[in-house]
Amino acid sequence: MAKKPAGPQMFIANRLDDGRAVFLTANGEWTKVAADAAVGQTDEEVEALAVLAHGAEDANLVVSVTAIAADTEGNNLAPAHMKFAMQAKGPSVRLDLGYQVSPNWEQ
Amino acid sequence: MYAYDTYDHAIVNARVEEFRDQVERRMKGELTEEEFRPLRLMNGLYLQLHAYMLRVAIPYGTLSSNQMRRLAHIARRYDKGYAHFTTRQNVQYNWPKLSETPDILQELADVEMHAIQTSGNCIRNTTTDQFAGAAADEVLDPRPYAELIRQWSTFHPEFSFLPRKFKIAITGADEDRAAVKWHDIGLVVKQSDTGEIGFEVLAGGGMGRTPVIGKVIRDFLPVSDLLSYLEAMLRVYNEQGRRDNKYKARIKILVDAMGADEYARQVEAEWAKIKDQPLDVPEEEVARIKAFFTPPPLPVLDNDVPTVNAFADKNFLFKAWVSNNTGAHKVPGHVHVTISLKPHGGIPGDATDAQMDLVADLADKYSLSEVRVSHEQNLILPHVAKKDLPALWEALDAAGLGSANAGLLTDIIACPGLDYCSLANARSIPLAQKLTERFDDVKRLMDIGPLKIKISGCINSCGHHHAGHIGILGVDRKGEENYQLLLGGSGAEDASKAAILGPGFDEGGIIDAIEKVVAVYLGEREDGEEFLPAYRRLGADVFKEAVYGAR
Ligand code: SF4
């Protein structure tokens, strides 16, 4: 397990069937758009999101649920660490296909 | 090529059905991820950053054209129209859906392929010389022995849960093109003075965070004893290899801790107990397997082909390609051809479905329907008549497969890195792409000569950076991608560990640094001296000064 990040947090996971990286929204849905993710500012808020996220894991919708540091500084909310930011954006190569082209791309 | 018998077919098909059932149960929620994960890994299915990744075994890098066509079909039907050939001579798909994986595995099983033992702490795909059975310098074809090892190691009950993954490489030529000294076990096929066939046996090589070059533990092992001896080697490791710390679990740590002599002694002692048990296969079975690899009936042709020479005189790129991408074949008038998967700006090891189909067609037309995958992430047509080279090159070049850079600076090994891999610290692919753009001119590349650049996105070293003449290692420096520069490694018979030159660089900085390293080499080399010998003669300091001096 990665160590618990400090500061504002969001939840990332992979969808069970296609493995696509997705982010937890405030109403417990999973979105492909990192900017639409819910951010927990306090421990209580993060805990509430964790309950939702792990519920989706138990319901076999997603796997590999992870709390990650959120970058709330810029115009768009994004994962703070480059690895999770990469998951939000898709590979930086083969920009001719896939969700590198459009976040709404479906397999 | 080896062809499955009914037993092979039965076990592979049974495994597909078993996995189909497991996937269905996972999708229905009858299996938790925790329960399912080891099951999917046993079938080569990883979860990466953006999607699942399926790693398909290509035993010792040998494919038929039909198998290649099936790989193309899978890329088209189930993936995004491309596949990635790896440093274990395997192939990976980056975007399969979990629910479709059983269908993919069935498609593979139908052409005698699978993804078994491409993950987990078991014996992985045995790798070998990509020119096996073709190269003029080959002493003996290693493939029958690689096949014996495949059969012995597949579902070996005692070695399914080793302390850590286990990799064997085997070569039968004087020039080591399979990096055998960097493997858990390395085997070099030898013929004794009396004509007896056997192996020099090395143990304890490996990359990762503790790079070690394997040590010879036996000078000559008769071929008839191969499997019992391997069994003894694995037993000693399985029993004494560390299971408490995964970073210390590879055989290299054990051999280092007890000393190669002591490891060899224990192996011999274990072997003495088991060598007379029926572990080694009978001669008839070896003969049966060997029969699949009898040299193809190629006609002896003239080595000098005027039409080819005339074509080369008019076309420099073709001439360069013949010089760099073809090599001497056992049968006069023939060559083995390396199809570079390192085009300008391309992703090392990637091929599109159309390219794979084309390679299959060209293999049918020009290479007895055989294709190979090299650990350097290229494809090989092993048996091509020289007279066919112009037509072959034109067909390849039209499909973006005609790069004349085999063995040169832009023939880069790069792991998937942070673009795909969840273990990565930094991206590897964009570096390789930028290097192929920076060093674009074939004349300049040929002037620089043989130079192997190898890039890994983390210390796991899938990109073999420890063995690079120039190695690049991606690290995470306070949340930023950073690249360490290593010089002086070799994966060949003169194996050596590359050494870190100094502080790391960002992406632009590492490319500039490589340019400086190359400039030092060009300035300092003696007549005909290649990069690696020049580095060994000059030492690191002169390179260090050029790269860091102005700081
Ligand atoms: S070297 Fe590291 S980043 Fe590259 S493929 Fe291997 S594990 Fe992934």
Features of the shown structure:
heterodimer; A: 107 residues; alpha+beta; five-stranded antiparallel β-sheet; 2 helices; 23% strand; B: 551 residues; Sulfite Reductase Hemoprotein, domain 2; Sulfite Reductase Hemoprotein, domain 1; 4 domains; 18 helices; 20 strands; 17% strand; globular; binds iron/sulfur cluster
Task: Give your account of this protein's structure.
The complex is a heterodimer of chains A (107) and B (551). By secondary structure, chain A is an alpha+beta fold. Chain A has helices at 43-58, 82-89, and strands spanning 9-15, 21-24, 30-31, 62-71, 78-79. Chain A has one domain. Chain B is α+β, with helices and mostly antiparallel strands. Chain B has a five-stranded antiparallel beta sheet with strand order 1-2-5-4-13. A five-stranded antiparallel beta sheet of chain B has the order 3-14-15-12-11. A five-stranded mixed beta sheet of chain B has the order 6-7-8-9-10. In chain B, a hairpin with a 5-residue loop joins strand 8 (185-191) and strand 9. In chain B, helix 1 (6-28) runs antiparallel to helix 2 (33-42). The chains are: A alpha+beta (107), B alpha+beta (551). Chains A and B meet through helix 2 of A and helix 14 of B. Iron/sulfur cluster is lined by residues 415-417, 421, 423-424, 456-458, 460-463 of chain B. Iron/sulfur cluster (SF4) binds next to loops of chain B.
Summarize the structure.
The complex is a heterodimer of chains A (107) and B (551). Chain A has 107 residues and is an alpha+beta fold. Chain A is 22% helix and 23% strand.
Which CATH C-level class of the largest domain in chain B is it? Alpha Beta
Helix and strand sequence of chain A: EEEHEEH
Which molecules are bound in this entry? iron/sulfur cluster
Please tell me how large the radius of gyration of chain B is.
23 Å
How are the secondary structure elements laid out?
The complex is a heterodimer of chains A (107) and B (551).
Chain A lengths: L8 E7 L5 E4 L5 E2 L11 H16 L3 E10 L6 E2 L2 H8 L18
Antiparallel strand pairs in A: 1-2, 1-4, 2-3, 4-5
Chain B lengths: L5 H23 L4 H10 L2 E3 L4 E5 L5 E3 H14 L3 E4 L5 E3 L7 H10 L16 E2 L14 H11 L14 E4 L13 E7 L5 E7 L11 E8 L3 H15 L10 H8 L1 H15 L8 H9 L14 H9 L1 H10 E3 L5 E6 L10 E3 H14 L3 E4 L5 E7 L3 H10 L14 E2 L14 H10 L3 H7 L4 E4 L13 E8 L2 E8 L11 E2 L6 H18 L6 H8 L2 H8 L3
Parallel strand pairs in B: 6-7, 7-8, 16-17, 17-18
Antiparallel strand pairs in B: 1-2, 2-5, 3-14, 4-5, 4-13, 8-9, 9-10, 11-12, 12-15, 14-15, 18-19, 19-20
Helix pairs in contact in B: 1-2, 1-4, 3-12, 6-8, 7-8, 10-11, 16-17, 16-18
Bound molecules: iron/sulfur cluster (SF4).
